[in-house]
Amino acid sequence: MDVACYTAESSDSPLTKSTLSRRELRSDDCLLEIRWAGICHSDIHTVNGDWPHDNFPMTPGHEIIGKIIETGPDVQKFTTGDVVGIGCLVDSCGTCRACVDNEENYCEEGATGTYNGVDRHDGSITQGGYSTHIVCREDFLIRIPEAFSDLESDQAASATPLLCAGITTFSPLQNAGVGPGSRVGIVGMGGLGHVAVQIAAAMGAEVSVFSHGLSKKDDGLRLGATNYVATADEGFDKPFRDTFDVIIDTVSAPHDVNPFIKMLGRKGRLVLLGLPTEAMQIPAGLLIGKGRSVLGSAIGGIKQTQDMIDFCAEHNITAETEVIPAEQINEAYQRVIDSDVRYRFVIDAATF
Ligand code: NAP
Ligand code: ZN
Predict the structure, then answer these.
(1) Domains delineated in the chain
(2) What is the pLDDT of residues 54-95, one digit of tens each?
(3) 0.85 exceeded by the pTM?
(4) How far is the CA of 252 from the centre of ligand 1 (A)?
């Protein structure tokens, strides 16, 4: 079926109104009517060619909430009318060790991204959530908890970014065993960062935010941080040396991570989530002396995504969102690049 969408024709053209074709339902597919679509910084990296690819025209979007309006004959878990979400993944091999361990995000054959991925059956390029409808295998749908399931509510719009920003930050925090007594640092108070603060605080950690400046300090403290620190201040790391169990780095631009490594305590971990394109330099001695590690983390598996959104519903955690009509997407992209959004844009899919 042809559906309305917003599409970029190339890495230097704006997103404009267009149409794309969604596949006929396969036996385990569901057809969703999309209600809300979040704007992740990864959409911007992809559309702007920061991560080179040839898959234009491109409809991005991997934070999606909507309602099922049709199901394939073999669908077991969902039915018409269910409110569901889609995050960054729409398929994986299902049989490798990663998939069997519920880590489809690390599928050994490569998981299929919600957009800019290759469909495992017909080889077409997947297209994302900036559109009115999408087709997805039932195994990759997330059940939206009741607290967020009134699709016309602010809660539903504000829960939408959890499908990427939520799982991407929940996963490394949970995997590190964060709980009461943990000391957690969050670098970058953007879309990912402001959700990470809430999740880490709800897990029981003492949270410190490291941001360019102090303009978002009141929000950081309100969302659960104990300390809010400006990285622009010389020597900002000194009072925190050797203290953190986990630091989550969400910064999207090139930056020096060594001050953050110095703030890690014994066996502390710096988890890189942001994807600046330049390589970073780390002296081995900074890691070896205290058994510290630097690791990366990519979103999370489907089961952990369900656990994340259930946790967020239970703890009343959502993103702080600015809802926009589709015609403002290009302006919104520039505002995300300029760090001028508090804290996530969500597109009203009725305007595609
Ligand atoms: P965002 O909303 O733009 O937030 C990024 C934050 O980084 C900004 O709010 C800002 O925080 C800080 N920042 C931006 N430019 C900076 C600069 N020049 N120097 C220092 N700090 C700067 O982006 P997002 O959607 O949260 O995504 C963050 C990054 O994570 C992106 O690179 C995205 O592609 C990546 N990502 C990764 C995954 C994964 O699975 N690993 C998933 C989703 C997104 P302050 O103003 O507080 O300093
Ligand atoms: Zn994302």
Answers:
(1) 2-164+300-351 (3.90.180.10), 166-296 (3.40.50.720)
(2) 999 999 999 999 999 999 999 999 999 999 999 999 999 999
(3) yes
(4) 4
